[in-house]
Amino acid sequence: QVQLVESGGGLVQPGGSLRLSCAASGIIFTIYAMGWYRQAPGKQRELVAIITSGGSTNYADSVKGRFTISRDNAKNTVYLQMNSLKPEDTAVYYCNAAAVVGGVRTGSWGQGTQVTVSS
Questions:
Q1: pLDDT tens by residue, 74-118
Q2: How far is 69 from 19, CA to CA, in rounded Å?
Q3: pLDDT value at position 70?
C-alpha cells in the first residue's frame, strides 16, 4: 500500500522560508520520480518541481531560483525548500510519486499540506 505523507506547511510572512517533506512508504522509492504540485483556491493543480529517479530536476518558472527540490533515497523522502516566499505561493502543496512499473504508468498522491504566505 502506497503512502505519501507531507509535512512542514504552515503560515509564514512574505520573504520567509519553509521546508516541506514527503515521506514515502510502500514503493521502491529509488525508481520513482517525485514531484511537488500545488493548488490554490479556484485554480487548477500545477506542477511546482520534480526530481527524477536519477536526480534531474525541473521547476515551474514561477519558483525558479527560490525553491529547491531534493531527495534522500536512504530515508525515502523528498523535500521542497522554499525561500523568498510570496503571497502568490499560498496553496495546498501535494507530493506525487510516479513511475512506470511493468510497463504500466503508476502514480500516487499525498493528502496535501497547507502553505499560507501572509503578513
A1: 999 999 999 999 999 999 999 999 998 888 989 999 999 999 999
A2: 10
A3: 98
Q: What letters, b where the CB count within 10 A reaches 16 and e where it falls short, cover 52-64?
A: ebeeeeebeeebe
User: Any idea how long the chain is?
Assistant: 119
Contact 82, 89 (CB under 8 A): yes
Q: Mind giving me the DSSP string for the chain?
A: --EEEEE--EEE-TT--EEEEEEEESS-GGG-EEEEEEE-TTS--EEEEEE-TT--EEE-GGGTTTEEEEEETTTTEEEEEE-S--GGG-EEEEEEEEEEETTEEEEEE---EEEEE--
